[in-house]
Amino acid sequence: MVDGDMTITAGGRLYALLSESEKWRVDAMIAEAISHLSGVKLLVLDRADCLDMQGRSDLLYWLSDLAAAGEVQTALVFATLKAMPAQMPDEATAFWIENGTIKEDRCLYAA
Hints:
Distance between the termini: 37 Å
Structural class: alpha+beta
Radius of gyration: 15 Å
Strand content: 5-15%
Order of helices and strands: EEHEHEEE
Strand order of the largest sheet: 1-2
Helix content: 25-40%
């Protein structure tokens, strides 16, 4: 929740008291709200690696739901990972960048 005085809380707890991943999720939702209200339909989310495996999965399916609803047209999500995600929603394309180049053979292209 964002109050009139710009105080941000999640579940009644002040933003400053949230964990790193909770803050990341709050920031992502605020960014989506701004995208929605502005009509830009673009999300750029960095440091998704601060989420646990379930949180990353939830993120991808949240973005998929937003895309299906026409709320977001483009979402750029950046993370430092050990490997390419094993499964991606149909609307997603993942690019693996290693040593400064995109590894074509490591990319997952969705139809």
